[in-house]
Amino acid sequence: MISSILIIGTGLIGTSLALALKRTQPGIRVIGIDPHAESLDAAIARGAVDHAGSMEHVSKVDVVVLAAPVRQITLTLAAIAPLLRDHTIITDVGSTKQDVIAAARSALANRVSQFVPAHPIAGREQHGPAAADALLFDGKKTIITPLAENNRQSIGMITKLWEQAGASVVEMDASTHDAVFAAVSHLPHMLAFTMVNELASRPNAKTLFSHAASGFRDFTRIASSSPEMWRDIALNNRDALLQEFDQFLLRANEMRELIASRDENGLREFMRQAEKARGYWLSGQWSQFNNVDNDANDKT
Amino acid sequence: MISSILIIGTGLIGTSLALALKRTQPGIRVIGIDPHAESLDAAIARGAVDHAGSMEHVSKVDVVVLAAPVRQITLTLAAIAPLLRDHTIITDVGSTKQDVIAAARSALANRVSQFVPAHPIAGREQHGPAAADALLFDGKKTIITPLAENNRQSIGMITKLWEQAGASVVEMDASTHDAVFAAVSHLPHMLAFTMVNELASRPNAKTLFSHAASGFRDFTRIASSSPEMWRDIALNNRDALLQEFDQFLLRANEMRELIASRDENGLREFMRQAEKARGYWLSGQWSQFNNVDNDANDKT
Questions:
Q1: CA–CA distance from B225 to each of A300, B178, B184 (Å)?
Q2: Where does residue B132 fall: left (phi above 0), alpha (psi -120 to 50 degrees), or beta otherwise?
Q3: Contact with chain B for residue A131, Cβ under 8 A
Q4: ipTM for the complex?
Q5: A212: chain B residues, CB-CB within 8 Å
Q6: Is A290 in Cβ contact with B211 (below 8 Å)?
Q7: How do residues A251-264 score in pLDDT, each as one tens digit?
Q8: Distance CA B113, CA B155 (A)
Q9: d(CA A10, CA B70)
Q10: What is the 3-state composition of chain A as percent helix, strand, coil, each rounded to the nearest 5?
Q11: Rounded to an integer, what distance in angstroms lies between the CA atom of residue A174 and that of residue A150?
């Protein structure tokens, strides 16, 4: 039973989590901390946070949620370590997990069993408490990457927290998590930033953007994400991300070569694999999707 | 005054154009041709097309709209050339313009003045007449890339046609058109196909796709586009597209290097340029955007 939580970082995710919990657990007490007074004030004004707290509250709540960008999470872990009592569980919302776990091991030492790493797979490109939404996690997944040191009770408590916020919980090991999200989230963000940066740097940027339509808008939506947050994610998941970069650039060069050599059939097949795979993904027809997969493997 | 049109190709764009014209010009007579009987039947069933036609109708209508993929457009131009009379204006909806114009010059010879090239900047990833929408062009742009041989009356007629379909018309020369759309449309499509193709080809594709969320969904939406249509666009706008590929790949390598070298400030600035530029684009604050542009130029 979670009766009180301390949310450190009342941005989009922290404030949305508070709103989601208030919705299903009206009795819960939510204390907030944020280095930006206006963020904290906005979270309080929205009714997400009951009152502003201080680090002393770490010893007075059931759960501490580290909801800052990943770099701040590692700094905050060091700050809260000396204040931690036996009964408190710490969790985070970081988009990368191995780095946060390494920081937690270093900061929390023999209390690391009290840290249950988590990553809600939900977000939007707008940031800050004004963009928060009580339904942000509804029907979405939250990944928990448990430590060997965690007991089932602690994991169960954080699982419950996210279920109460509307999410379904999936457990995964941290290195798999980081590899999977480098591929399906981190690299797409980098490519969207790259596309907009490239066009914005040109002398005719204004002409280019004035003719960009809905395809471009959706392709680059994630380039409106927080630069600070995504810089941290990129650097904290550097190795997996660089590997994804290299595999993508190889594949992009393969497509470039199909175009350069006017390989009509090869180009159509390349596109068709993508179109089919995406169709199976959207419709959830995994058995069919395996066929696509095998086709693709046969080809290469 | 356009009282009758022949639409050759009753897919998404042809059928949407017919529906849009019927909406504002209820008296207009729309004749359709499509090599796929089911497409034509569907366009007729939707009330977009009044009846099926044959190539003979080329001589009997005010405007012929070539609404097939670009490769078919060039074949169709050759087929209709001998049937063309003085009063008929031909236009197209191709996403590339220099190649269509070259084909028109070759096929139509001294009647090329009757061909007014156009490109409606609207679409969706679904294709076929079932996806057609009377409001598809509403508030969107249509680019006309007039030929030196076109008279103002012909250009005015096609301008009127698209305005009646809800679009606003912009004139541009064909080579500028092809360069602009290689950058803001064609390359993003290639990159989206590449991203999905790459992940679909992996042994763990199923795991990867099962964790892909809304960022990935929007980034890859255009990878559900028609492979045949986009193969044709890629090959017909090959030179401009390859140039865009190379510039993008250089920029992607620049970002990769910022990550590899852990350049925190450089990476944040790279992302911030993109985030700011996209914000100015969405809000239409071009004067501010120019500043971003200059900043970016100063940096490089």
A1: 23, 19, 16
A2: beta
A3: no
A4: 0.87
A5: 184-185, 281
A6: no
A7: 999 999 999 999 99
A8: 10
A9: 51
A10: 60, 10, 30
A11: 14
